[in-house]
Structures are given as C-alpha cells and as structure tokens.
Predict the structure.
Amino acid sequence: GEDVEQSLFLSVREGDSSVINCTYTDSSSTYLYWYKQEPGAGLQLLTYIFSNMDMKQDQRLTVLLNKKDKHLSLRIADTQTGDSAIYFCAESMVDTGRRALTFGSGTRLQVQP
Amino acid sequence: DVKVTQSSRYLVKRTGEKVFLECVQDMDHENMFWYRQDPGLGLRLIYFSYDVKMKEKGDIPEGYSVSREKKERFSLILESASTNQTSMYLCASSYVPDQTTYEQYFGPGTRLTVT
C-alpha cells in the first residue's frame, strides 16, 4: 500500500538552509510533489520531480530524490520568514490508475528571525 | 490562472444536521477531489470524481456522500454531521493530461466545526 511519511516540525533561523525530508513506500510512484500551505490557505504546488530524475533545482528550491531508499528531500536556501508554512510531500501512482495523490502528514517549518 | 473556490471559509453546524460543502473550479478540469485535513494526519481523500455523475470512494468515505451534476461543481454532503467530522475540508481539481503529471489545484478550505 501507499504510505508517505514526514517529520512534523522543523525550526531554522532566517538565512539558514532548511531541509525537509520525506519517505515513501510505493516503488511505482511516478511523480513526487512538494506543496506549501500558508496559514489559513489551501495548498500550493511548489515543485515536482519525475521518478527518473535525481535532482531538480528551481531558484532557492532543490529537490533530491533517492529512488533506491525511497527518500525525497526539499532544500530551501536562504530561508526567509515568509517560508514559514506547512510543507507536504505527495506522490502519484499513474500506473495504478489512482488519480488522487497520497500526501504525507506535513512538516511545519518555523523560521526564526 | 486556475481558480478553485469553496462556498464557505468557516462553518458551524450542530450534531445531526445535514451539511453541504460546495466547490467550484473554472478550468474545465475532469477530476475533482475532497480531502479532509487534520493535524498530524495530513490530507486524507474522502471522495473523488473523474467525470460528471461519476464518483469513487477515497480512503475515508464513511459518513460522507458527494454529488457532481455539472463538470465545474463538486459537492460534499455530510448526511448527519457528527463531532468527529470537525475538520478542515479541502477541495481540489486536476485535468487529464497527455503527460502523466497529476498536479492538483486546491481551494482555500472550509473549516467545519460540529457542536
């Protein structure tokens, strides 16, 4: 079955790098996503990576995928107070026909000034 | 810009009431989803719909039903609200692409309190 796990909380100082980790269990995952949820808002897609890639970089965001260990990480460089939010890892499994995403529990990132 | 709207941001209902949560998307997406979000549990799929009048149960459908009479609108119904249905409800939509990404677009959420 599918299971996506994340740690619940991360605290960093402004200007430092943040690394949010995620593990998943289903090897048939096709795309893996990072969503951001700011207080009182819905989820917003930050970035995604296809399962045949190892890394994707987009400005301050770097996604690393270790398919052997089923481990996904999101690195935010030069973390700002505006990055404080809940970050969700999610996977899609297109081959199974399941159209919904499976989400992790979310990691609350707190950025201290 | 895709827009997914939900009828209420906050809702307070009494135990036993019938509750309707409405969701509308403006991008002609085929797929629509209802999730509930609870602290420490992430998002859990209640129901989804891949076409008008089509629906499939998600991971936690008990106590809920859905309706999709028009492509742009997906309703979540709590037939008889209970206190354990107090939660944040998130609606999402996605389209059926030629490629395989299944990016979902989310509404702002409805925080439902059942007293």
Observations:
- The radius of gyration of chain A is 14 Å.
- The longest strand of chain A covers residues 85-93.
- Chain A touches chain B at residues 4, 6, 8, 30-31, 33, 35, 40-45, 48, 50, 88, 92, 94, 99-101, 103-106 (CB under 8 Å).
- DSSP finds no helices and eleven strands in chain A.
